Amino acid sequence: MLVISACTFSVSALAAKPIVHDGEYYFVEAQYRDQWAAQDKTIDKKLAQLREANGGQRPNILYVLIDDVSFGQMGKPALNDVMGISTPRINDFARQGMSLNRMYTEPSCTPTRAALLTGRHPVRTGIKEVKVALVGEGLASNEVTIAEVLKKAGYNTAHIGKWHQGDIEEAFPHNQGFDYAAFPAHQQVQLALMSPESAKANNMLGWWHGTQNGEMALDMKFKPSGLVTGLEARSGGLAREVDLKPGEVWTQAHYERMNERYQRQTLEQLGDLAGKDEPFFLQYWPLYPLNFVHNGEAQSRNGGFMADKLEVLDAWFGEILDEVDKLGIADNTLVVFMADNGLMYHYEGTSGMSQLIYRGGKTNHLEGGVRVDAYARWPGAIAEDSKAADIVHVSDLFTTFARIAQADKYIPRDRVIDGVDQTALLLEGEKNGRRDWVYIYENEILKSIVKQEWKMHLPTPGMPAAAAGVYNIYRDPREQHPLIGHSLWSGASFQDMAKRHGMTIAKYPHNKLGKGKPYEGIENLRPESLETVETFMSWH
Amino acid sequence: MLVISACTFSVSALAAKPIVHDGEYYFVEAQYRDQWAAQDKTIDKKLAQLREANGGQRPNILYVLIDDVSFGQMGKPALNDVMGISTPRINDFARQGMSLNRMYTEPSCTPTRAALLTGRHPVRTGIKEVKVALVGEGLASNEVTIAEVLKKAGYNTAHIGKWHQGDIEEAFPHNQGFDYAAFPAHQQVQLALMSPESAKANNMLGWWHGTQNGEMALDMKFKPSGLVTGLEARSGGLAREVDLKPGEVWTQAHYERMNERYQRQTLEQLGDLAGKDEPFFLQYWPLYPLNFVHNGEAQSRNGGFMADKLEVLDAWFGEILDEVDKLGIADNTLVVFMADNGLMYHYEGTSGMSQLIYRGGKTNHLEGGVRVDAYARWPGAIAEDSKAADIVHVSDLFTTFARIAQADKYIPRDRVIDGVDQTALLLEGEKNGRRDWVYIYENEILKSIVKQEWKMHLPTPGMPAAAAGVYNIYRDPREQHPLIGHSLWSGASFQDMAKRHGMTIAKYPHNKLGKGKPYEGIENLRPESLETVETFMSWH
């Protein structure tokens, strides 16, 4: 009988079980249980009214994720002027909805994207930053992505642009819930730095053979080569490389064409998806503003090679918004626009991008690594020209998108979901957020805990806990003045938070990263890619 | 005949002579002469139309100058959230007019205020930072202030709040063109730090006798004491101290009452001035947010003792705007709201204010010292919700106010006026500014030159000019990465700028600071103040 009962374990039975959250959530929820339950009823009514107003249709979700741009660099006119750039379309968009002024991400591309996709801190999925060369790893097939959740609930799904979740077949977007995907197999180190033009622009000197004679080298595979470039695929099908012919050299021109293609494909997908009966979930994750070659014709006052592309991107985002208008779907589309982590500060100066308010950038647990510009627009649902100082973590979008799409019953109940439902914040406004904390990892190491305006940089192994710096990030946004004296009261509270988090992990151990042979499921591998895979497999 | 001619030197003869500018102005003007001359005709027509629309009346000018607040800390909602403060009234006001996103001031209170008052770099007037104790110095009577210029043109004038232009009679505001003035004789070191409460709050430990027994001290005048507090006066009359009785101790309560009084007096003046036939020039220079005592009841999320007062100030500024509306003068009043220099970063942490985007603060030539939030509202004249990335220097307001008030003919022609007329920028919008440079002094030392997005930290004595750091402040707002290599082309250009400035000084030598006996012209000096003056005079 028990076995039969297990076999008939149905979606509705799943729905009856609550989502499993991190310990910290329960600690806070216990203080607001009745209030939140009552508010949830209001929210459900509002969502029903919104559907009613849109012919019974649930909203489309368009999610635009920008690469490596720090808080303040997009959508804030005064800070445009600080940098000598101009992002008028993003600025306008920001005013049409809610500015999420305390959006936290993970500190790097792969982890942030994994957190959005799974609603989980990447450490739980085994995901770390995916390196540029072959790794034979990626997002495991048993992770449940937001695309899978929404697809189960009847959404059409598509992904265009950067993906960066690994080079194995199971990790590819069309195998992770997206009906259609156009994406590069890797990331911009390959696509924007590993080119002859970039070498001539003084980047990664010595990587390109033309800038190094290499006459004492034996290993010709030490420098990554033969990598797959752009792929396209449909769910259940094989992927096809579309950018490079056998023997062809990847250049800056290829990179620019690839970027233009993703923009064009996003517009095309938008048209296709808007024409269907079901609502859609469309992800556009551009590769710009990452760019390392100045083409000699300044776009922006700033003129840096990333700053210029940020202006290009602004116009492109405008084009997309215009298309949304033209298609008549603006009113029933939630558009979320944000960056994935702080700037690539290794190129400060020439890139034109710099640390602004927060210290640090990509790869750092400092605020500069994990605080980004984020805006959400949904006319009639989210108040125009509003803002929220509530803490939000990128994983919250997983849970919130699912709730808004009436898909929350498809969120798995057998694992921890870090994403908190922030629908109340979007619909009811500032001070209706349901999180006042964030755990910040660098790969598998928990580096910081944020609670309200305090942030503890956790002690490194062997360091006495009392020496751990606590920062008040309202008063010290650059995290330069540890308040050892002022915050002695907080040590135990932070330790308790670490414990609650650790106990949750003990109860729900981490998943394993997906492993496999790189590039399986690509139907037209070039000979040089086949050779690269073979060399890779020689020691696996 | 020559003598007679000199004697009959009239206002209209004065007007025929052009204003004397710094060499750099002429260098730029030569490139735009015809364009600017043509635009000036358009501007004159626009100003005439504006007067016509307001019954022939020239606009009132309300100038609110805030003390020691860095760029980004007022009027920018996203940055409110960064700091955990809320300045809704300033934010709203900012949207009603133009954000001057590249407003430069001098790096400290006295110099910035002197630059506004005279339209000249303070070095030309002999003005440096005025210290807290007696100095027997101040703004010379032969300097011509904006109040004198506007008064000659028929404006009624009033000054309320911080003044900080010296402790001698000729330097007091009622002797510098203001019909009415209510102002403290000194500044907030006396008013907000030299109190028993501030000592108990761990500030200036040892100054207050209760926190130091001083039993080996002979000199009881080493610590400033017996200073005059708040004064009130009318033009041509004597000043009267209004806050303290003989023998009374100055406390935090006195400071708070003084602040409240200035706010009240500003509202009163506004009512009085609005009731008159002539237009008015009203300056309100609050003492808040400077404050060093936390009263135990947090106002802001930030909670710092200055952050809290910034929120108080926001509400007060709102009250003033409401009064402007109530009086029905909003449409014909140019309101300019800005800070005088960067934050007092010596109190980062406990004050709640911190360096945000720019490095440094009060006293520094770094952008953090001289870049401030600045907003100008003039309905019908300045476009709503506009911004300008053009460089503006605080001295430009002198010239611009005069132009707008049809008072430019009263600007003296016998001295250098650094202030550039920025009326075109206000009326015609961004990219109509007439300055792309700023000279930055720390007291009498020229420390930096800004031109467009480049800034040279001038070589210190003995340093080879080629070692002087040039910074691109769009790409490196914190001035941390000198572009020695990238900017070698600019060395000669910056040297030429320094030369043009130096040649102007050679032709028009600096004026002398006013000197005199402190506190003359005060009718009710307390015995302790009399004694303090006597001791001061013992070595003069």
TrEMBL record, chains A, B:
The lineage of its organism: Bacteria, Pseudomonadati, Pseudomonadota, Gammaproteobacteria, Cellvibrionales. The keyword Ligase does not apply. Keywords: Calcium, Hydrolase, Metal-binding, Signal. Gene3D superfamilies: 3.30.1120.10, Alkaline Phosphatase, subunit A (3.40.720.10). Residues 59-405 form the Sulfatase N-terminal domain. The keyword Calcium applies. Its cofactor is Ca(2+). This is Sulfatase. InterPro entries: Alkaline_phosphatase_core_sf, Sulfatase, Sulfatase_CS, Sulfatase_N. Belongs to the sulfatase family. It comes from Candidatus Litorirhabdus singularis.
